[in-house]
Specification:
about 15% helix; 3-stranded antiparallel beta sheet; alpha+beta; elongated; two-stranded antiparallel ribbon; about 80 residues
Length: about 80
């Protein structure tokens, strides 16, 4: 059994996921988003990346950036 907090909605439910007969049994979710998130997290976790980048302009030293979509969690590297 795995436990983690859902990020599918603002509630942040504590999800419990068990592998069962080739599928997954999810408990602890308050909405359907939790079940979808849990199954996705177990099979192919993805994240949206938001960050900042340094510029050469003194009046604007950093700019916010965000990817246009989610990417596989394994491809996110810490700088």
């Amino acid at each position: 059994m795995k436990e983690f907090n859902c990020i599918g909605c603002p509630r942040g439910c504590l999800l419990r996921v068990e592998e069962e007969n080739g599928g997954f049994k999810v408990s602890g979710n308050s909405c359907p988003n939790g079940e979808r998130f849990a199954i996705s997290e177990m099979t192919a976790p993805r994240r949206m990346v938001c960050s900042t980048v340094k510029t050469v302009f003194p009046d604007v030293p950093v700019l916010p950036v965000r990817l246009s979509g989610e990417i596989p969690k394994a491809e996110i590297k810490n700088a």
